[in-house]
Amino acid sequence: MIERVFNRLSLAGLSATFVGNGIGRFAFVALMPALIQSGWCSQADASWLGVATLLGYVGGAASSNALAARFSSAWLLRASMLVCALSFFACAMQGAGLAWAYAWRTAAGAAGAVLMVLPAPVVLARHEASIRARASGVVFSGIGLGVAASGVLVPLLVGAGAALPLLHLQGLTSAWLGLGALCLGLTVLSWHTWPVEAPATSGSTERPPLPADLQLTVLLILLAHGLNAVGYLAHTLFLPDYVVRELGMPLASGGFFWSMFGLGAAIGPLLAGSLADVFGLKPSLVGGLVLKAISAILPVWSSSPAALLVSAVLMGICTPGIVALVSAYALERVGPLHHRQAWAMATSSFAIAQAGGGALMAIAATQLQSYHALFCVSAAALLASTLCIALVRERASSEEHLASADPLPVAATAPNP
After folding, report:
1. Fewer CB atoms near the end CB (10 Å): N or C, the chain?
2. Helix residue ranges per DSSP H, 71-200
3. pLDDT for residue 206
4. Average pLDDT, whole number, for the chain?
5. Is residue 266 part of a domain?
6. Contact, 85 vs 180, CB < 8 A?
7. Are 8 and 122 spatial neighbours (Cβ–Cβ below 8 Å)?
8. How far apart are CA 185 and CA 174, in angstroms?
9. How far apart are CA 373 and CA 229, in angstroms?
């Protein structure tokens, strides 16, 4: 068992979420304005490319557990990171058409879901129980670090074509290729770090169904994580627009508050993991959801720059921080044998709620005079999520020991923020 939080395996897990989600999914948000302004695609086409990523994520989350039953976790992690890298290289081909880009953005979304589901069970099962929360924080900090990195790198890479005319690259081509190169580099660096496993066979990968006494626990975690997804939608969909158009602040102000969200997301998982190792997973998760609900409602209470700053940073900290806590909490509740299954189901719940809730909020936003109602919906969803976690029954001490005991042999535990 690994006794140090920072090690090659936990950093490989960080690289996986960095590539699959921080860059693979969210770097496209930073690229969208440049795509539209440069004429690569219309605003509607760019929006559909964003939808393709989301649909791919839903499909990848739903199928990740079935894929893990047929292939080794190491193979799936390597392949998914490679798909994310290749998707950026493929999208650099401007004349390939929208269908080509749509297919590759869908593939990137699906690979991103696999890279959200698989790293945590592979990494956490090989760490001492006393440091699993912090190790989970290391793994999921890749999301926020990727968001922050994309916010810095995309403007630099878009300008690289003009700065290096000898390469005969347009700015957006440079951006696609640069992000792809970053993903490919991390894929190569982590390639041999993933644990070697026995080949997947029906005898070694079949798992018993969830025991009856765990089914309610898993259901409550699924509901909590789905509601958690609704809780961050108002900020991630509308905060910059709310700041600029509803409050009348400059465009730069909207960008500033969004970057503060990214800054919070970069430190959230590590902070959440450290607090959980001190106060326990359940108290930290309940507290984090309450703080996230406060950050969701804060723009309704006050539109001052200070309140908006606190709201953006706190929402950024809590968004990936709570994902890390939910994964570690699922491991604590159901044990290593059922962790991948439970976490894959929780990721699917998050993805479906995110897609459905996002669509409904987008429709509602066109009918409302203010975004305040949507911030209230997010806060209410987070309070309901808090209640779900509070209702999870604590296990007996002997069961707790089994849940945190050494994992099963690699072939049984390997391969599911």
Report:
1. N
2. 73-91, 98-117, 119-124, 132-158, 160-163, 171-190
3. 55
4. 82
5. yes
6. yes
7. no
8. 16
9. 17
Q: Is residue 366 exposed (0-12), middle (13-18) or buried (19+ Cβ within 10 Å)?
A: exposed
pLDDT of residue 308: 94
319-358 core/surface letters (b: 16 or more CB in 10 A; e: else): bbbbbbbbbbbbbbbbbbbbbbbbbbbbbbbbbbbbbebb
Q: Which amino acid is at 55?
A: L
Which ranges constitute the DSSP H helices of 43-93?
Answer: 43-70, 73-91
Which has the closest alpha carbon to 407: 347, 329, 339, 326? Answer: 339
**Contact, 285 vs 388, CB < 8 A?**
no
Residue 2 falls within a domain, yes or no? no
Identify which has the larger pLDDT, 345 or 165: 345
Q: What distances in angstroms separate CA 343 from CA 166, 330, 335, one per listed residue? A: 48, 7, 11
Q: Which tokens belong to 107?
A: 């593939």
Whether the predicted pLDDT of 203 surpasses 60: no
Q: What share of the chain is helix, strand, coil (3-state, %, to 5)?
A: 80, 0, 20
Q: How far apart are CA 29 and CA 161, in angstroms?
A: 20
Structure tokens belonging to residue 87: 């998707």
Round to whole Å and give the CA distance between 90 and 176. Answer: 8
| Residue 277: per-residue pLDDT | 82
DSSP-derived letter for residue 2 is: B
Predicted local distance difference test score (pLDDT) of residue 105:
93
CATH number at residue 384: 1.20.1250.20
Burial of 131 (0-12, 13-18, 19+ CB in 10 A): buried
Show the domain range for 96: 8-194+202-413
Is the separation of the CB atoms in 108 and 196 below 8 Å?
no
Question: Is residue 1 domain-resident?
Answer: no
Domain count, the chain: 1
| 16 domain residue, yes or no | yes
Q: Is 190 exposed, middle or buried (0-12, 13-18, 19+ CB in 10 A)?
A: buried
Lookup: tokens for 355: 């897609």
